Amino acid sequence: MEEKMQRMRELVELLNRARRAYEQDDQEIMSNYEYDRLYDELLELEKETNTTLASSPTVNVGYEVLSELPKERHERPMLSLDKTKDVGRLREFLGDQKGMISWKLDGLTIVLTYRGGSLEKAVTRGNGEIGEVVTNNARVFKNIPLQIPYQGGLVLRGEAVISYKDFEKINEEIGDADARYKNPRNLCSGSVRQLNNEITAKRNVRFYAFTLVRAEGVDFHNSRLYQMQWLRNQGFDVVENHPVTADTVESEVAWFAEHIEKNEVPSDGLVLVYDDIAYGQSLGTTAKFPRDSFAFKWKDEIRETTLLEIEWSPSRTGLINPVAIFEPVELEGTTVSRASVHNISIMEELELGVGDRITVYKANMIIPQIAENLTRSGVKDIPKVCPVCGGATRISMENETKTLYCTNPKCQAKHVKSFTLFVSRDAMNIEGLSEATLEKFIMNGYVKDFTDLFHLDRYADEIKNMEGFGEKSYENLQNSIKNARTTTLPRLVYSLGIPNIGIANARMICGALGNDPGRILNATAEELAEIPGVGDVIAGTFAAYFADEEHRNLFRRLLDEVVIPQEEVRADAQKFAGINFVITGSVEHFANRAEVKEEIEKRGGKVTGSVTSKTNYLINNDVNSTSSKNRKARELGIPILSEDDFIHMLEE
Question: Where are the alpha helices (DSSP H) in 485-592?
């Protein structure tokens, strides 16, 4: 008995640590397979000993997520679902009852409250009892109805999710993340819990209703299926659901299994609930689970194979991730030959060595992972140098997880974002080079500094054979590089990524120095500080950048790659020097707001995103609008210009 209690304490500590790392720090210290195995072991020990520890994950619904969002208690606790991987258990659960089976979506659970036909409140699941209020963010979900026909009090639950397609696109383009998100769930959680809902709006979050908690005065004919149809009629997207009985549950599970890979949004299983609402509610709950529903997790298809090598994959954060390469096996209808191992801690837990016999599976039938190592030869040959730059590596212990890092601050893998800036529209404007593509080029050794981007023809055959590339894509890229060779000095200076130097400051400085590359290289901080609109900080960072011989050499080599036509010095180059504008609303005389911004910056002005006491003018065609920016401008006595007013200013 004592040994069993000791093992239970160890399991509780280990499982809680894994959950904290996953839910609060986005770290994985063990595989899903290992977590489920240890959880089931703990559950069995609790049954044998008839004892449940207060901190056991089998009774605690979840951890409170740390954030600055306001907290609110749910009117009804949100319990976890009991789970099984056995279809027979679902058949037994249904008995002679009719049920509803649906996807168990893998995102962030949200509780919505409507009153008088309007969205009143949105709260995350949180720890099941207390969630975070995210109403402003929910209002910008792509498919959420802000107004519904029903005028009474409505409370429903659903899952906020980000599709695989959007996840991949956002992961390539996202500018405020130091490293890519591991999966759509993590990206969704970060998106829904933003303090600024402008960021949420860009993330294409969608909401799928899965439970109706309360709707005053509506007859639902005692049917969960009817409730789902009623919610659909109110304008909600609802989770895909099918009616089911004990006789059809096996074929229904098989149908969902066949369709999971075609699913646009992540799912980690199925949910089965009694259709009869009154019957389900009469069963009550256990300490952790409602008795009217069950979660079904896919029984993993496991294959045995041989580990051929560990590939070490560097990232922009300096982290070098181990990837297991093994003899190809068929899993869930596809051929699989590689799986992320995440970190050294998991490698050591598996005692993973080249040549070992391992078993592999697809987590949630999608993501390849190692289940077990059958021969356990042990971890060896952790690289002493980075595979990209050759710099020294070090093993670091963070959040109780052992990871490998590249120590070279100049490692190209760490500077993917600087290459992304270099090719961006306001810089060298090389189309066809997404962040993901640049990362592949850097990891493959095609690109070591900015000048290499003008000589990708050296690797023509390799690039044409890359996934996502081909003859046409390569030709388009070469044409874009050719066009980028003709540029302006401000664009070239901005593309270098000098701290505090945006395109507006680059134009200002280049204009003041006569668009002379020689003067750019040798400008002193004192000389730069005398330019209107350039302060001591900007002057200091600019001069310090070009004081570095490596930077001077790079700039000279870039000048050899490009053609800079002579620009006439504008008579009104400093017309808006020291003047701050904010632009909002639609425009008519310009193609877009970016063109208005360019006209201001050409004349030495600055454009910011929000109205403050430092703003001189707000440009908005709807001068009489009651928008927040217009209200703020009026409060501060800031003139609001129409587009015609602004054009008149340009012509004065």
Answer: 489-495, 503-512, 517-522, 525-529, 536-547, 549-561
The reply to whether 433 falls in a domain is yes
- Specify whether the CB–CB gap between 74 and 211 falls below 8 A: no
Most confident segment among 336-340, 490-494, 586-590, 625-629:
490-494
pLDDT digits (tens, 9 = 90+) for 478-498: 999 999 999 999 999 999 988
8 Å CB contact between 83 and 297: yes
Report phi then psi at 254, rounded to 5: -65, -40
Q: Would you call 244 helix, strand, or coil by DSSP?
A: strand
CA angle 548, 551, 556 (to 5 degrees): 125
Same domain, 433 and 380: no
DSSP letter (8 states) at residue 31: -
Catalytic residues: 104
User: Which one-letter amino acid corresponds to residue 297?
Assistant: K
Q: Which two tokens stand for residue 376?
A: 């356990």
Residue 135 · residue 69 · CB < 8 Å: no
Pairwise CA distance, residues 638 & 649, whole Å: 16
Structural domain for 459, as ranges? 412-484
Specify the pTM: 0.51
- Whether residue 570 is contained in a domain is answered as no
Mean pLDDT across the stretch 99-114? Answer: 92
> Which residue type, as a one-letter code, is found at position 123?
V
Rounded to whole angstroms, the Cα distance separating 318 from 324 reads 19
Using CA atoms of 344, 348, 351, 355 in order, give the dihedral in degrees to the nearest 10.
10
Q: What's the half-sphere exposure (Cβ side, CA atoms, 13 Å) at 203?
A: 33
* Interacting residues of 465 by C-beta distance below 8 A, sequence separation 6+: none
Which pair of structure tokens corresponds to residue 263? 């699913």
